[in-house]
Amino acid sequence: MGKREAPNYIWKDIYPTWDEACKAAQSVGGKGLGGERWFQRITRQITDYRDELRQYGIAMPPRPSSLPLACVLANPSTILDFGGSSGYCWDYLQNTLPKHRLSAYVVVETDEVVDYMENSGIHRAPVAYRSLKDPLDSCDLLYCNSVLQYFGSNAPLLSLVERTTPQFVLLEDVVATGEEDFFSVQSYHDSAIPYRFLGLHKLLQELADSGYLELARYPYASPILGVIKPFEMGNFPKAKQLRYSSSILLKKFEGVK
Hints:
Blueprint: H1 18-27, H2 35-56, H3 67-74, E1 78-82, H4 88-96, E2 104-109, H5 111-120, E3 127-131, E4 141-145, H6 155-164, E5 168-174, E6 182-188, E7 191-197, H7 200-209, E8 212-220, E9 223-224, E10 227-228, E11 245-252
Parallel strand pairs: 1-2, 1-4, 2-3, 4-5
Antiparallel strand pairs: 5-11, 6-7, 8-11, 9-10
C-alpha cells in the first residue's frame, strides 16, 4: 500500500495571546493581507467575475455569499460591507436581485485598500470606500465575510455596530467554537498571518449585549486553498477543533441589552 499523504495543516500552533501570534507570524516573514500582490489579487477577483458574467450571463461570486437572501429578508437601502476588499458583493447583488432599493454600499477597509480602490476606477457611486477611523452613517445591514479572524478581538465589529446601528448583521465564514478566543498563525501561500479562532459564545453574548439576537446559523462553504472540505485540525486538541466555519444572521431587537 502507498504511503498516506500527511495532512496539510493550515494552522500550526496555538498561542496564548494575539500579540504572541503576531510575533510568531513576523518571525517567519509574515506579510499579511496587503501590498501589491494583494491588490492584484482583489483586482483580478472582480474583473474575472465581471468577465465571466458578460460571457455566460451567470457567474459564481469570488466567495460564497448569502447576502442576496439576507437582502430579500431585510430589504435594505444601505449596506456596510466590513472588509469587503474588491467590493464584488455589490456586483453580485446587482446580478442576483432583479428589484432592490439599495442607494448606498459602503466598504470599510484598511487605509491601503481604501486608497487603492478609490484610485482604481473599479467602482462608482453608490459604492464608496471608508476606513475604520472615518465617520460613518447609519446603515440597514452590516455584512462581514471572512474578516473577524484577522483582528485580535471583536472590538472593531462591535464599534461598527454601535456607530451604524444596523437592523440586521450578517457574518459569514465565522471561524468560531467554544467559549473563548484562541490564537494561531495561518499559512497563506508564501506568507504567515496571525489568526484568531473566535469564541462563539463570547461573540454572540457581546452582540446580544448590543441588542442583537441570532436568527439563524448554518455551515459556510469556506474554500481552503480553493477546496471546500472540513478543516484539517488534527494537530489541535479536540476541544479546539471545528469542521466548518459558520454564517450567522442577527437582528436588532429593541429593549434587548
